Amino acid sequence: MDEKLSNVDPKLLDLLVCPLTKGRLSYDREKRELISESARLAYPIRDGVPIMLVSEARRIED
């Protein structure tokens, strides 16, 4: 995958919030996901675009 597409602009991370909790997100570079710890959800990034839909998010298990 193109290196540029696999990186997330830090400014974008400051603007995006979890659509469910409105909480902050962290970026998991290895899995290419935005993580909402409070909602226990991981939102995928596809072709450099964060998919901020709860229905598309992966549930994080303990």
Structural overview:
With 62 residues, this protein is α+β, with helices and mostly antiparallel strands. It has 2 helices and 5 strands, in the order ααβββββ. Helices cover 16% and strands 27% of the residues. Strands 1, 2, 3, 4 and 5 form a 5-stranded antiparallel β-sheet that branches. It is globular. The protein starts with a helix and ends with a strand. The model has no long low-confidence stretch (mean pLDDT 88).
Which key terms come to mind for this protein?
five-stranded antiparallel β-sheet, alpha+beta, 5 strands, 2 helices, 62 residues
- Oligomer kind: single chain
Distance between the termini: 29 Å
Count of β-strands: 5
**Secondary-structure element series:** HHEEEEE
Shape: globular
- What would you report as the Rg, rounded to the nearest angstrom? 11 Å
Task: Spell out the blueprint of helices and strands.
Blueprint: H1 3-6, H2 10-15, E1 26-28, E2 33-36, E3 41-46, E4 49-50, E5 58-59
